[in-house]
Automatic annotation (TrEMBL):
PANTHER family: NAD(P)-BINDING DOMAIN-CONTAINING PROTEIN-RELATED, PROTEIN YEEZ
SUPFAM superfamilies found in the cross-reference section: NAD(P)-binding Rossmann-fold domains
One Pfam family here: Epimerase
Source domain of life: Bacteria
Lineage, broadest ranks: Bacteria, Bacillati, Bacillota, Clostridia, Lachnospirales
This protein's name: NAD-dependent epimerase/dehydratase domain-containing protein
NAD-dependent epimerase/dehydratase domain: residues covered: 3-219
A molecular function (GO) term: aldehyde dehydrogenase (NAD+) activity
InterPro entries the record matches: Epimerase_deHydtase, NAD(P)-bd_dom_sf, NAD(P)-dependent_oxidoreduct
Coiled coil feature spans: none
Length: 290
């Protein structure tokens, strides 16, 4: 089976592509920089140089693969206009190119941030109403809706994955985000997902038959409190603001993963952050620990 991947040199893609190659899949990647893609090429990936927004031969680049996995996105540090073009327009262009190439299976990487903006008393479900406030998840919701329209009107075999907070495999995501998390109520619970399980979910979404037009939450089995996560990573003790910790709803950042377990036979290799610590697979084995 051959899989076409965008965003292959990003945080998720640079781990996902080797994951596929080690399991015997053929992988073709679209990149803008051959230099950044060199490590993946050396591992066996087929490299195509191009840009989603400026590529007349995109359908030809896709032709002959069995599935497209779209990971490329703009997250932080860009204007809303750039985020819209990169996250919405580019996704539509890629999906239409895949259809033109005769490739219908399309895996779209989304985020659990789409559940923001609404207080929730139950874990976030794939069928929940979405009203995110932040620009990035708003673009992801718009892209999801546009791709679902292509499913309804043109037969796109769509699988959308909404990832919880991603960590592990020396990704500094927790460390980068700790200044923001330190201001949150330490009792707030949050779902996490290790990079190994991100890759597992993407592979299952790309290879499993008969699940088109489905949305899946991807997370581990044991949400963790913000206070515990920061303590385990040995960040400074949280200091409450003068007015006390802000209130929160219990499930604002907790995901229900029933659907992906049932449909795709997903079983987390890192069911909790403690498992990652035990396996020395958290952000920094020297830093994280009880």
């Amino acid at each position: 089976m051959k899989i076409f991947v965008t965003g292959a040199t990003g945080k998720v893609g640079s781990r996902f592509v080797p994951y596929l190659l080690k399991r015997g899949y053929d992988v073709r990647i679209l990149v803008r920089s051959t230099e950044r893609a060199l490590p993946l090429k050396e591992q066996g990936a087929e490299v195509v140089v191009g840009d989603l927004l400026d590529n007349e031969n995109l359908a030809e680049a896709i032709r002959g693969v069995d599935a497209v996995v779209h990971l490329a996105a703009q997250f932080r540090g860009v204007s809303e206009e750039i985020a819209r073009v990169s996250n919405i327009d580019a996704s539509i262009i890629l999906a239409k190119a895949a259809l033109d190439a005769g490739v219908t299976r399309f895996v779209f990487s989304s985020t659990s941030l789409v559940y923001g903006g609404i207080s929730r008393i139950n874990p976030c479900s794939e069928d929940d109403v979405l009203q995110p406030v932040l620009p990035y998840p708003r673009t992801k919701v718009a892209a999801e809706q546009a791709l679902l329209k292509l499913y309804r009107e043109e037969g796109l075999d769509l699988r959308i994955l909404r990832f919880a907070f991603v960590y592990g495999d020396h990704d500094p995501h927790i460390e980068e985000f700790s200044p923001i998390m330190s201001k949150w109520n330490p009792s707030l619970q949050m779902s996490l997902v290790h990079h190994e399980d991100v890759s597992q979910a993407l592979m299952l979404a790309a290879t499993t038959q008969d699940v088109n037009s489905r949305v899946y939450n991807v997370a581990d089995d044991a949400p963790i409190s913000i206070g515990e996560l920061l303590r385990l990573n040995r960040f400074p003790e949280q200091v409450p603001p003068s007015g006390g910790w802000p209130s929160f709803s219990p499930c604002d950042m907790v995901l229900d993963t029933t659907r992906i377990i049932h449909d795709l036979n997903f079983h987390s290799q890192y069911p909790s952050f403690y498992t990652a610590i035990d396996k020395k697979a958290s952000i920094d084995p020297e830093r994280a620990g009880a």
